[in-house]
Specification:
By secondary structure, the chain is of the alpha/beta class. It is 38% helix and 18% strand. The protein has two domains: 1-100 and 257-354, 3-Layer(aba) Sandwich (Isopropylmalate Dehydrogenase), CATH 3.40.718.10; 116-255, 3-Layer(aba) Sandwich (Isopropylmalate Dehydrogenase). The chain has helices at 15-28, 45-52, 58-66, 90-97, 161-175, 195-208, 220-229, 241-255, 292-304, 308-323, 338-350; strands spanning 4-9, 37-42, 69-72, 102-108, 122-128, 145-149, 152-155, 182-187, 214-219, 236-239, 264-266, 271-274. Bound molecules: nicotinamide-adenine-dinucleotide, 3-isopropylmalic acid and manganese (II) ion (MN).
Length: 354
């Protein structure tokens, strides 16, 4: 079998620290992989801006296209210069360039780990990843926001039937693999009658072709309230881009924090593992970051690429570490730094620790 070729892009802030941790985990899990792995590295973010004048140079996009999968670090996108000066959002550009239309964001409680949620839950937010309110669409297209006259700013929210159908199909396919077999469409069609109306009509049509899956619809504001009250009422949430962005952070926080939030950007031909959280500049370079999000994202990528044994090994080691206070990072009330936690995790994976 040919080798698995991954491209690792560190990103900004805590990116290099959590990427080093994820690559150490990948190394530890090599015996569980059905093939060799080759990891190529490239720069994005401020490091790339300094070296090339762009936060996501064209050769990096080409390398991502050529790879079997991408490991994408978080970026300090908010702090970038304007696009005319090379400050593009690397995750937005890659999502668009690689047609990564599904942002799959699981959130679950972990046995033994206290969480803000009132009861255990295990859900997935299936976020449409390419449309909606997103202004910085890609490096060639202009912004989706504009000022027709000074003092008035408009943002275009694009919803299409094709994109809604694709994400709905992905949500129902996922629900078929899950215990409750349930999909909830989250929307604001009471206000955005045309755009969310189209989204909802399209999801309904897909639901009709999956009669075995329980299907319901919840307005986004009520969905936020339901999530806090009882996240276990949801199994797969399918929603538009920005609602998915916000609700996935909420669900992750209910499960214990952003440091636990894995996510996969997936499309027909490509996939990129990317932690849900940002570059956490407040703790960057201090060995304080919890690398779990990116490591869970790596496990999702490996499963997506046909390596379930390696993914399961990573998840089991994470569960073992998260279950005990002495093998947790500071964001979870533990005493381990990024390095210490990664060492415990890799020891679990390789069997050096029970
Ligand atoms: P953030 O997710 O970076 O941080 C929010 C809070 O969570 C901070 O207190 C941070 O310390 C903490 N946190 C986040 N990840 C953590 C981890 N792995 N371990 C421990 N604590 C963690 O959000 P922000 O501060 O709003 O944004 C910072 C920068 O990241 C901005 O420039 C923003 O645009 C960017 N951002 C990037 C992505 C991405 O690349 N996917 C996602 C969100 C935000
Ligand atoms: C995410 C982030 C990005 C998004 C930002 C950095 C553009 O919040 O990946 O969730 O909104 O998609
Ligand atoms: Mn986000």
């Amino acid at each position: 079998m040919t080798a698995l070729r991954l491209l690792a892009l560190d990103g900004d802030g805590i990116g290099p620290e959590i990427m080093a941790a994820a690559l150490a985990v990948l190394d530890a899990v090599r015996p569980q992989l059905g093939r060799a792995v080759e990891v190529e590295r490239a720069k994005i973010g401020f490091a790339a801006l300094k070296a090339t004048g762009s936060t996501i140079p064209e050769p990096v996009i080409a390398a991502a296209r050529a790879a079997d999968g991408v490991l994408l670090g978080p970026v300090s996108h908010n702090a970038y210069p304007p696009r005319e000066e090379g400050g593009l959002n690397p995750s937005g550009v890659l999502r668009k360039a690689l047609d990564l239309y599904a942002n799959i964001r699981p959130a679950r409680t972990w046995p033994g780990l206290d969480a803000p949620a009132r009861r255990p839950f295990d859900l997935v937010v299936m976020r449409e990843n390419l449309e909606g309110f997103y202004a910085d669409r890609n490096m060639h297209q202009g912004s989706g926001e504009f000022m027709p006259v000074p003092g008035v700013a408009l943002a275009v929210r694009r919803i299409t039937e094709d994109a809604s159908r694709r994400i709905a199909e992905a949500a129902f396919a996922l629900a078929e693999t899950r215990p409750a077999q349930q999909v909830t469409a989250v929307h604001k069609a009471n206000v955005m009658r045309l755009s969310d109306g189209l989204f909802l009509d399209t999801v309904r049509a897909v639901a009709a072709t999956h009669p075995a899956i329980a299907y319901d619809e919840v307005l986004v504001d009520a969905a936020a309230a339901h999530l806090v009250r009882d996240p276990s009422r949801f199994e797969v949430i399918v929603t538009t881009n920005m609602f998915g962005d916000i609700l996935s952070d909420l669900a992750s926080e209910l499960a214990g924090g952003l440091g636990l939030a894995g996510s996969l950007n997936a499309g027909p031909d490509h996939a990129a593992a990317q932690a849900q959280h940002g570059s956490a500049p407040d703790i960057a370079g201090r060995d304080r970051a919890n690398p779990t999000s990116l490591i869970l994202s790596l496990a999702m990528l490996l499963r997506h690429l046909g390596e379930p044994a390696a993914a399961a090994r990573i998840e089991a080691a994470l569960a073992a570490c998260l279950a005990r206070p002495e093998t947790r990072t500071a964001d979870l009330g533990g005493r381990l730094g990024t390095h210490g936690f990664t060492a415990k995790l890799t020891a679990h994976i390789t069997g050096a620790m029970p």
